[in-house]
Amino acid sequence: MTIEEPSQDSDILIPPYTPQEIEAINVQLEGKSPQEILTWAVDNLDGLYQTTAFGLTGLAALDMISKISQERGVTHLVPLIFLDTLHHFPETISLAEIASETYLAPLHIYKPLSVDTPEEFATKYGSNLWETDEAAYDYLVKVEPASRAYKEIGVRAVITGRRRSQGGERSLMKAIEVDERGLIKVNPLGGWNFKEVKEYVDKENVPYNPLLDKGYRSIGDIHSTALPDPSLASDEAERSGRWKGKSKTECGLHVNYFDMKEKFGKGQIA
Ligand SMILES: Nc1ncnc2c1ncn2[C@@H]1O[C@H](COP(=O)(O)OS(=O)(=O)O)[C@@H](OP(=O)(O)O)[C@H]1O
């Protein structure tokens, strides 16, 4: 079975800063609040978008950006990108609409190429590709759609909802990063833990996924999301319900793009 690829423009972006300048910016932003990091991003980065699956962290960032926008007397400053994998919970899909309407934030939704429904996806790639070839699944539902979005709408920088307290590869993350293709990634709430994010969301009445009130913490696709492990402390538990029983900890969005593209970009899957 062949993975369809759109026509390719260059994947490479020229970052507006040298590695030394990025290091200096990170020193400058160390210990700053999420709002200060977001203000820096809004003031300094062209082609800035927020990439979000409407997790609690992204929602807090969305609320903060809205407040920064209001202070400046403008409607929402940073458009959103949501990668609709076709396998999200209905609650997540509703929340995407609610959040974008509440904050008047333009929402760009990207789906797997030439596929509109889970049924069409199953017909084209099999009924459980996430089991038979999970890396190919990640490429089709997140990596390729994200790269298509970046090219089509001129994305040069993205705000993400990752945090150091989520552990794994995220634990050493800086406020500002440049990925392998030259895309700037801003992690404004990188220094907060789950409790701090939840307190912000409650205090500011930010809309959030009702599945959180059923005990879920990190919410992705239906087939790879379970309740977190109750024996773990809050921060360790947060992502323990994702890909339960597997060694996997990332969905492909935050791993090396060129490795994924080389493996799946033009090829066949099993
Ligand atoms: N589907 C989709 N669409 C757009 N952006 C997405 C998507 N999945 C992950 N992300 C971005 O990654 C942030 C962390 O997500 P997760 O902790 O859920 O992990 S994972 O990326 O799914 O592995 C996540 O943070 P939130 O904004 O809090 O959702 C986003 O910045």
UniProtKB/TrEMBL annotation:
GO terms for cellular component: cytoplasm. Pfam families: PAPS_reduct. GO terms for biological process: sulfate assimilation, phosphoadenylyl sulfate reduction by phosphoadenylyl-sulfate reductase (thioredoxin). Keywords: Cytoplasm, Iron, Iron-sulfur, Metal-binding, Oxidoreductase. Pathway: Sulfur metabolism; hydrogen sulfide biosynthesis; sulfite from sulfate. It comes from the Eukaryota. One of its GO terms (molecular function) is metal ion binding. Residues 49-226 form the Phosphoadenosine phosphosulphate reductase domain. This is Phosphoadenosine phosphosulfate reductase. The lineage of its organism: Eukaryota, Fungi, Dikarya, Basidiomycota, Agaricomycotina.
